[in-house]
Amino acid sequence: MTGLGDAVKYLYANFLLRDILSFVMPGAAIVWVTLYRFFPQLLDQNFHWLLYIPIFGLFYVTGFAVECLERLSGSVHLHTLDDATFKERLSIFCRCWRKREDIYKEFRERAFEFLWASSDHDWAKQNYERLVVLKQMCANNFGAVIIAGILFGVSFSPYGWVKMGILSLVILVLLVSLFWGYRDFTIEVTTLENKFKSLRQQDLGVDK
What we know:
0% strand, mainly alpha
């Protein structure tokens, strides 16, 4: 039991458990339904064990795309301060997106301040991270079940063009959501870098 506990603690500390529950699991559900109902011949193939590395990577990327889609559509809010409209979220696709104001700046700075202040309190950080894991896991797996259910239902259509059309649409929407996520996280990195510099200067001022 001690070995199992240490293993779980290691996975949790390195965010691997969060990634498995929040991204790999929902991604695997969508990919498996797609292969099972649209390309069953691929499931009969004997893959080299090294191929499972990119396969798990595909699971992860698919699950992350589900989260981006939920955030972009507004069906899931990662925090109570997320009151941005769908139009505001879409504005990240404009040409001047690098110069736009971070619509989640207040939340991101508050979360960063909390983690900074609780750096000496492991229990506070662990509890915060646990809540984040539970929130992401519930939202992402729920979204994945909905998407997988749509694909599963469409797969029974007698028209091949309908099945391929819906599948292509789902893939396109997930790819667009990934692109949105890339731009949003680029803006988030800038926000957190500025906040880190500000907090660092405050700490240096106190030390002096």
